[in-house]
Design goal:
single chain; 467 residues; alpha/beta; eight-stranded mixed β-sheet; four-stranded antiparallel β-sheet; 11 helices; 20 strands
């Protein structure tokens, strides 16, 4: 028997051999296909994004702040102060833009409204009005993509509808993004799918306007394949002085709100918690909008929203529509939901004032939204009824999906990634087919299927369910 010291030396050498052997041979197989390269913005898209103007962003926010307060419970009839005045100005502005739209581009302006009976934060029957511009799709009008900002505002006391509530960052900044996108997209031939750009009300009181808009679209049978709310996108400077002017957070939910017990159980059983439609949507935005055309990095956050907060994407998620939230990378809570005042001791300025907005930053956020929205609306729709064959045990994977009827559909691509990777890593072009067998084990990776247009635009991916 070896002496103990020699035994340890022998063991150490053996472990070193194992480590070196693993380092050279235990490498994850490359698998089929090729590394995924993010789809680059086209020349057309670059030209559109270059037209987004920080000066117009400034003008929009300045005008909205000028109404004093836009509290949901404020005056609906005063021509210069309150939410009614803001609503009427937004409608007039959208109508003016629509009137100057490019030939062949059909834009309609509507004001979906209803009377909200007394409820949480609504003490009396209150008119809730959204202001919505719809750019009708040229070939697939029922497929829709929605972007909103909320135009109501508040101060410290959520029920105080008389004091000034400038709401510059929260959320005139998001409404400015909406108007900029309408201005530039109205000057183009319409995309394949329909674009809906809305300024919604009642967010601070309980997401009332967004809930109404989501229900209107749901009742109309609209195929909403993506929705984004821009809420608090006015500055990159946090309350500790930290700045990140070239990033924007995008929050995407995991397990779907609308899923029933059976669907959620299946999702969990296949490890698909990270591949809900909302997660595929935010992956798509990261791919198409983190580039030099936007000058921004999309920081995907894998959760519904920030702690203790909520947003206008939630009513869409509740109705089964993929939806996500854009919010600035760092927040200063002295400039959100605060009375306008100066602290007598520290001299700190409180209140959501326009002086704390960064118009260049907001313009870049608008570019991120524009890149995502146009890329979605010009691509074929996300594949439907995607399944993976689990009838027998195999070391390959057979995927099937419904063959789309989109005008300009060129074919499909199968995407895959190791289960620990946050974004898609590999792509396999498979052509204009509805079924394919891939030489990769479904037990080891996550698969997705996306559609490809003849124009080069690609859809978000769809996760296959056992079929």
């Amino acid at each position: 028997m070896f002496p103990r010291s020699l035994q340890l030396t022998h063991i150490a050498k053996g472990l070193l051999f194992l480590v070196l052997s693993c380092a050279s041979t235990d490498i994850w197989p490359k698998g089929p296909g090729s590394p995924l390269v993010p789809q680059a913005p086209t020349g057309e898209l670059r030209a559109m994004l270059a037209q987004i103007d920080p000066k117009r962003v400034n003008a929009t926010i300045t005008k909205l702040v000028s109404f004093g307060t836009r509290h949901t419970l404020s005056s609906q009839t005063d021509p210069v102060r309150g939410i009614g005045a803001a609503r009427d100005w937004l409608a007039a502005e959208m109508r003016s833009i629509a009137a100057g739209a490019a030939r062949g581009t059909n834009i309609t302006i509507s004001i979906p409204s209803y009377i909200q009976q007394p409820a949480s934060r609504i003490p009396t029957p209150t008119n809730i009005s959204d202001v919505v511009a719809t750019i009708h799709g040229a070939s697939d009008a029922n497929r829709m993509y929605v972007i909103t900002g909320h135009y109501d505002s508040r101060v410290t006391d959520i029920m105080n509808f008389t004091d000034d509530a400038p709401g510059a960052d929260d959320d005139a900044s998001g409404v400015a993004v909406v108007l900029e996108l309408l201005r530039i997209m109205s000057q183009r031939p319409p995309p394949a799918a329909t674009i809906v750009l809305g300024a919604v009300a009642g967010e601070e009181q309980g997401l009332y306007g967004s809930d109404h808009l989501a229900q209107v679209l749901f009742d109309a049978g609209a195929d909403v394949q993506g929705m984004f709310t821009n809420d608090i996108v006015g500055s990159s400077k946090g309350d500790d002085g930290t700045t990140d002017p070239f990033s924007i957070r995008l929050f995407g939910q995991g397990v779907p709100t609308s899923g029933d017990a059976s669907q959620i159980s299946t999702l969990e059983s296949i490890g698909g918690e990270n591949d809900s439609p909302a997660r595929e949507l935010v992956r798509f935005v990261h791919e198409v909008a983190t580039n030099d055309a936007t000058g921004m990095k999309v920081r995907v956050i894998y959760r519904l929203d920030r702690f203790l907060r909520g947003g206008d994407h939630e009513p869409f998620l509740e109705r089964g529509f993929p939806a996500a939230r854009f919010t600035e990378p760092h927040e200063n809570f002295a400039h959100q939901h605060q009375d306008v005042r100066v602290d007598p001791v520290t001299g700190q300025q409180f209140g959501d004032l326009i002086e704390f907005c960064d118009f260049d930053f907001i313009a870049r956020v608008a570019k991120v939204n524009g890149a995502a929205l146009w890329s979605l609306a010009q691509a074929p729709g996300t594949p439907k009824n995607v399944t993976i064959d689990t009838a027998v045990l195999t070391n390959n994977s057979t995927l099937s999906w419904e063959l789309g009827s989109d005008v300009g559909l060129a074919g499909y691509e199968v995407l895959w990634r190791p289960t620990i990777e946050p974004f898609w890593t590999n792509v396999i072009p498979v052509g204009l087919v509805s079924k394919v067998t891939v030489d990769e084990s479904k037990d080891n990776v996550v698969f997705g299927v996306r559609a490809v247009g003849k124009n080069g635009y690609r859809s978000p991916a769809a996760l296959p369910f056992p079929g």
